[in-house]
Specification:
Layout lengths: L2 E7 L5 H10 L4 E3 L9 E8 L2 E10 L1 H10 L10 E7 L3 H18 L2 E4 L4 E3 L1 H15 L15
Antiparallel strand pairs: 1-5, 1-6, 2-3, 3-4, 4-5, 6-7
Helix pairs in contact: 1-3, 3-4
Length: 153
């Protein structure tokens, strides 16, 4: 089952700013070193605590997405200029990674998070707290890495 989260913001953050945000938020999560922010579209490999994992990330048409959510009865505040969607599966390593990445990106970009699974709007700190809870509760129960991380990536 695929789950989705969306970050709405009025500015974007570079990969460097995003990575610095993850470090400041206390996560050992390394974004793919050659990823270009403006070209993000599909699977983004990351390394969590030295193990390869990842999630999908897409730049979205913000106005269309806000309108679609509004039609479904959801107010995501705003007005917003940018929207990025994140899709992920059910493994805990991936879940920790995406929660940390989404929370840090939203915090750095000054945005909010719409959790598609829970159908609720959250502040970045709430998502980061959830990432820490999941990490602490499941750190000894993580599945094998999805792939072998190579530094050349």
């Amino acid at each position: 089952m695929s789950m989705m989260m969306i970050v709405f913001s009025n500015r974007t953050a570079s990969m460097r700013e995003w990575q610095a945000g993850l470090e400041a938020d206390g996560f050992d999560l390394l974004l793919h070193q050659s990823a270009v922010f403006e070209e993000l579209s599909g699977f983004l490999p990351v390394r969590l605590d030295g193990a390869g994992t990842g999630f999908e990330v897409y730049h979205e048409d913000c106005a269309a997405l806000v309108s679609e959510l509004s039609d479904q009865g959801w107010d995501v505040g705003g007005p917003w200029q940018y929207a990025m969607s994140f899709y992920f599966g059910g493994d805990f390593r991936e879940l920790i990674s995406v929660l940390a990445a989404v929370g840090s990106y939203a915090r750095v970009a000054g945005g909010i998070v719409f959790d598609g699974e829970e159908a609720k709007v959250q502040q970045p700190v709430e998502v980061l707290d959830e990432a820490r809870r999941v990490r602490n509760n499941h750190k000894d129960k993580l599945d094998a890495p999805r792939y072998e991380w190579r530094d050349a990536q």
